[in-house]
Predict the 3D structure of the following.
Amino acid sequence: MKDHAADEILGSYEHFDEDKRLADPYGVLQRRHTEEILRRYLPPAPADVLDVGGATGPYAFWLADLGYAVHLVDLVPRHVDLARQRNDRVHPLRSCVVADARALPFPDGSADAVILHGPLYHLAARADRDRVWAEARRLLRPRGLVFGFAISRHAGLVYGLSQNLVFDDAYYSVIEHEVSTGVRDNNPPRIRSMLKAYFHLPDELEAELRVHGFAVEQTLGVAGPGWNTPDAAAAVADPAKLDRLLAIARLVERQPLLSQGLVTIGCRPA
């Protein structure tokens, strides 16, 4: 049986540069704030960490430099090839694997932390996301942590307002559908980003976590609203202004809907 979900994810990255995205204003804020959150909640190194949906390894290599034993997993072969090339030079990762987050090639109880960086928003069907959560639970040791990163239900709407895109009927039809249902699957041909995705509400993300037997430790907003500041590129290039935007992200992180991204941190029971 053809796996349409996997094909859609692979197709979405054919013409998309994930490393370039992390260098744009939102990407800079996202990465810096995500690193803060991971430092705050991860168990001490040298814990075993699976970075699932880890792309070319921006977080995996950073965690390895901190002393963690990191396995990078991504569905996109090009991402994993780039990570392997980098790994061949510096050798910090335990492995770089092409695999599907719904069926991971690691033994039960092999991780102290599982980071889900893309599967929860790239998989629009609840049944697929349930398989991802179940895999995370299978892989974690008792008291292990899962970090489930998601996109806020209103992220596209807020972005559309900031760019005047909401006055475009085609764009607004996408936003109206995704705010009402959480699902983005009706993009017109000229809108190529996130062709199929699921955008969560915080309570909904926590509910998915609990169904699989995790205890919710915390749900936080990621990056805050600062990416929408006028001339954001200049702001994140200025160290003092970047520090202020990160302070704002920390200030409002317990109000997740003020951020474009969310993370729910769950603990596998002992």
In short: The first helix runs from residue 4 to 12. Residues 4-152+201-267 form a domain with the Rossmann fold fold (CATH 3.40.50.150). The first strand starts at residue 48 and ends at 52. The chain has a mean pLDDT of 90.
